[in-house]
């Protein structure tokens, strides 16, 4: 657990590995950063402005779990769902308004659900001076330089007035170019538009995703103007190599069977020998495991998580130094571009 502190509030965050690939804007992610500020950071690069882009935010605000012993952030992963619950968390400098309890649920198919159990005060009234208030999703790509540039190319925002106790929202992902794994699907699928195939990277894209830097580096914008036939030219008639040696010739290459042993008998004997070897190896493995009880057998499920298992993360004020800053406080933003230091 790492603690990041600004001059106005404190934010704690935790990297969590997922047990399944979660598709976020077409990118399969296996790790998220859970923050006490009511959101998850979905980016590959950890930088000073986590709240700026690449987030899933059921209710991003200046929550401080250190106000109460009952405040927790819990998560659960059962292989098909990853659930994060901000439980009884209170707002910094607005703690008297009451505790908030809400969830973000990530489904294996990419669907995202926000559930709100307790919303004691209208989201519109939450103080934004020390921390941004956001509800929704954001995705961006980053380009390196003296100060890397973040470009937010898509954002989903949920109306604050709709967020009340007992409400829920389901966000369903749309098809993306990245899901196509072949040139033909990339250029002919009716599910997507504007896709181009980069043969060098073997990737389908419209050029606007978090792999933008690679798309530029390998000149994919030029390759994407080609057709699949340019990458797989059709061979002219008569140019194909002749078929391999006929079956009759291949049979003559096999050594003759010893006299007195029919061919079928030799095959049966080989199968019996293989089965005997398999049984012997199995018995040997069982004996080894029984005589070595501390050794875990292959493919053993090391940790079992179910919907009833909610590991709890307790947070307390620890006042340590950090370089964390909000985009509203420490970055330059213009027309979707943000310049920041790592």
UniProtKB/TrEMBL annotation:
<keyword id="KW-0732">Signal</keyword>
<dbReference type="InterPro" id="IPR031152">
    <property type="entry name" value="PLXDC"/>
</dbReference>
<comment type="similarity">
    <text>Belongs to the plexin family.</text>
</comment>
<dbReference type="InterPro" id="IPR002165">
    <property type="entry name" value="Plexin_repeat"/>
</dbReference>
<keyword id="KW-0325">Glycoprotein</keyword>
<keyword id="KW-0812">Transmembrane</keyword>
<feature type="transmembrane region" description="Helical">
    <location>
        <begin position="266"/>
        <end position="289"/>
    </location>
</feature>
<dbReference type="GO" id="GO:0016020">
    <property type="term" value="C:membrane"/>
</dbReference>
<protein>
    <submittedName>
        <fullName>Plexin domain containing 1</fullName>
    </submittedName>
</protein>
<dbReference type="Pfam" id="PF01437">
    <property type="entry name" value="PSI"/>
</dbReference>
<keyword id="KW-0472">Membrane</keyword>
<keyword id="KW-1133">Transmembrane helix</keyword>
